Every structure is written in C-alpha cells, then in structure tokens.
C-alpha cells in the first residue's frame, strides 16, 4: 500500500469496481478497499449448504451486466468470465401443467400469448430495438436526454404503474408474465414507475437474454478484480472503514455505501443540511433468502419451467399484486411472490454430479425476522409437486443476517433504497449530480444513487466520471 493515492474506493461490489476501473484506466493511482475477505459484494458465491455445492449469495442472473453501457465494453471474457444461457430466459407457472414464458425471441414470446401477441409486441418492440440509445438515458442521473423522443416514449409507459399497463392485456398468461417482471421493483404493482422495471427487464431479456455466470456470480467479481489489477489497481481486503483518518493520503474518496453507513463514518466533514437529506433517505422492503442443495432437479412438469434458469412463482397477476401490497403495508404474505433460480440445471459446475442447487427469495417487510422457509417451499411445491423430497440441505438469510453479511442491504433491502417516483432519480439527495456530497472530495457510487440496484456498474461509472472531471479535468463518455 502506498502513502498516497489519487482516489480510494470503498466497497468492491459492481459499482465499486466500475468506479475503480474507470479511474485507474485514466492513469490515476487507485486503491479499492473491501471489509470482507473476498471481493464482490452482491456478486459473491459461497458453499452455503454442503461441500461441493456453489450458491450465489445474492445476484444470480445477469441481464443488466450485458445491457450496461459500461460493463459491456470491458474485456471481462479475457479474464475468465463466461456466461451460459437456459433455453428460456424466464418461466412463470400458472399451474402444475401451465406456464407463460419469456424467450430471447420477442416474436416467439408474443406468439405464445395468443390474442395478446400484438399488445405485447407494441409494448416492448421500440425499446428492444433501440436499447443502446435508451440505455444511455435511463441508466444514469436525471439530465437532458440524448434521444428525447425515445425517452418520452419510454417515460409515457414507464412512469405508469404495472397495473395500468396490465390493462392492455386480455390473457392471464400475459398479465402474469408482466406482473412478475414488475414485481422485481419491490413495490406494490399499483405504484407509479413499476412499469419501468417491467419494461427494462423484459427489453433486456429479449435483447441480451438473462444469462448466468459460469461457475457462479463470483466469476463476475473475479473477472472485474483481475482486469482492475491488470491496469495497476490495488485491492485491500479485510479492511473495515470507519474513519477517514485511517486512510492513506488521497485526493478523492468514492463510497460504495448506503446513506445509513455514510452517516456512521467519522471524519467526512459533511454539512448538516446534506446529512439531513441522508437521514431522510427511505429504504424499501427487505427479502428473505433461501438456498438449497438438492438430490435432483426441481420436479417441474411444465417443459418451459424445466428449461428456464429463472422462474417467477406466484400464480396469476391478482395473487402477485396482493402479496406485494401486503409487504408494502408491513405484513407477510401467506403465499408470497417468489423469485427462483435453478442455476445447476444449466451450469453443472454448481453441484456434484447428478445433484443440484436452487436459489430463491421473497419480499418481506423491512427488518423482518420472520422465517419464511415454509411459505416459500409451499409455493414451489404448489407448482412442482415433490420438491420438498429433493431437499438435502438448506441455508436461510433473514433481513438482519443479510445486512450483517453485506451492510449495503439495510434491513434486507437489496435495492439500496426504495425506487418509487420520488426516489427513482433523486437518490440520495435532491440534486442533478447526486453522486457529489457536500464535501467536494467525497462521492457516492452505490446503488443509493441513480440508476439504483443491479449488476450494471452504472452508479459507479457516473460517480467516477464526475469526479474525474471535477478533480483531474478528464472528460469521459460512453
């Protein structure tokens, strides 16, 4: 470790790496600090259940890594990263025998929806076809869009609620598929902006697919680390950060942290008014997470469900809407909306030969300590009878345990703060450059800044881009 750096980046999640790589690539000397014993943040994989089983601790499927204007430009394949795909990106069971699906092909997905085929195509086609233009405008801070007409078209749909957009559809299959996409927003489907979540996830699914990283999500983190180090960057593990005075001399400090964590750090010299804005920042709901070691594949009987890496388990739209509304009211749903991944079906390296892994979570009230194991497993058993008989071992994470594992998951909130209309772009403060803090040498680069949660690195990219111009007179753009 040197005595002085141009920039120190705290936190080795996707945004921390994005900021560190961008600044290092511009000739700066940077140091990346990580409190844990391995890099990755939400991209880590561990043996949580039994020896030989590899589980993704948080992020499991990576459409946004490919859709990211920044990560997609990095030569991560040269540093060991490869993606694998299931035959179907997503399946949404409606009964033991029936399921809707999302295919890489928008045309085949739409065709399977029958009389909703044209409505589905009309909803997604403009954004699938023009994603590279749209991505620049939506995956960043509030600003004058490069493509105003396209952005206006997206905004006219995306600012609506998932429920409003669902009225375009007639079939239970289309409504359920749409509801599952919007459910990733961790908001009631009646909330404004939930349509934006569904539009983005569906569009990138058709444009890039919903891949998983070969060997586990840790492979994404390891490739980022290897590329960063090849540029000359330094990584220091097992280094909790509690006081700026403990750091080597530096010109810029990048914090891949939530407002709650920032407020607990000594020596940042933040103005009282800015601290009040951080104190007023609102978290969203939490999650309860399960991982299983299985003796066999999940016994789905529907062929789409068998061949999809990601499954939305929640039945028809009304049931999903009811579950998400209850959670937003601080209650637990008896039949929760479950997000499930069966990675080992398509990446055999995740488990011993003939055996399998599975990964799932449901939304719960912020800070909940309730054990939702039975509710989640009942939902899966409902669509895959015999699932419980396959379980060899399980690992649980409630919201407190998730926050202990990764302090960025405040109260189990994996999105870094609620992403409703008032915090979609004004996060964590009311500013056109929310990455700057009141101390001009300190920047925020976490998912508590636009565009929010996900393995895309764009929060870190934008924070580093602004810091480079502010302090080193270097302008970069994608």
UniProtKB/TrEMBL annotation:
InterPro entries: FAD/NAD-bd_sf. Gene3D superfamilies: FAD/NAD(P)-binding domain (3.50.50.60). PANTHER family: DEHYDROGENASE-RELATED (PTHR10668:SF105), PHYTOENE DEHYDROGENASE (PTHR10668). This is NAD(P)-binding protein.
